[in-house]
Input
Amino acid sequence: MKTILIVDDRKSIRLLLQELFSAEGMETVLAANGPEALDKAAAANPDVILLDMKIPGMDGIGILKQLKANDQKAAVIMMTAFGEPALIEEAMANGASLYFIKPFDAFELLEAVKGLL
Output
């Protein structure tokens, strides 16, 4: 079974994505902040990480850098409500596989995850 780590400070987004991926037979792990994301990534060893760019306390770029420093092999898809080209470039330069700008089509995200798996 493939494991998806969903990292977003908004509970509604975490639950929506959990429902979407669970319906496809994937295990989901949820995190609301950076430290929780890093702990759960280490414990669950996910196949794909969906990572919000703007999270209070530790932003998505910081989390991404720490994941890669911890030798996390999961593909990372960045999610952002801000189509900021510099942030997107930085995320891609630091190992993100893809990015989605919110609001996004959940089924397009599902297809992207399947493509990475």
The chain has a mean pLDDT of 94.
